[in-house]
Amino acid sequence: MDVMDRALEFEGRKMSGMTTSDRVSSSREVKALILELNEIYKENKDTEIMDVMKRLTVIKRKIEKRLNTKPTV
User: Which residues contact 18 (CB under 8 A, 6 or more apart)?
Assistant: First the structure.
């Protein structure tokens, strides 16, 4: 599962010392990962996928909070 591997790799990244540009690109990347995982979840209903999506959403909210933008759903 390539999307799961990318999601777990993203989750393990170091988030400190990021520039604003890095935060914007990370926010976009994590949003795309969440949407891809959601499509897989719709088919499989696997709880592990839901747990990963929840953890990625927390990371995304932290990044967007630091960018002083409204968190997107």
Answer: 26
Q: Within a 13 Å sphere around the CA of 19, how many CA atoms are in the beta-carbon half?
A: 2
3-state SS class at 28: helix
Q: What is the pTM of this model?
A: 0.81
Q: What is the DSSP letter of 15?
A: -
Backbone angles phi, psi at 15, to 5 degrees: -105, -5
Residue 66 token pair: 């630091």
pLDDT band at 73 (very low <50, low <70, confident <90, very high): low
Considering Cα of 18, then 22, then 28, then 33, what sign does the dihedral take? negative
Give tens-digit pLDDT for 30-56: 999 999 999 999 998 889 999 999 999
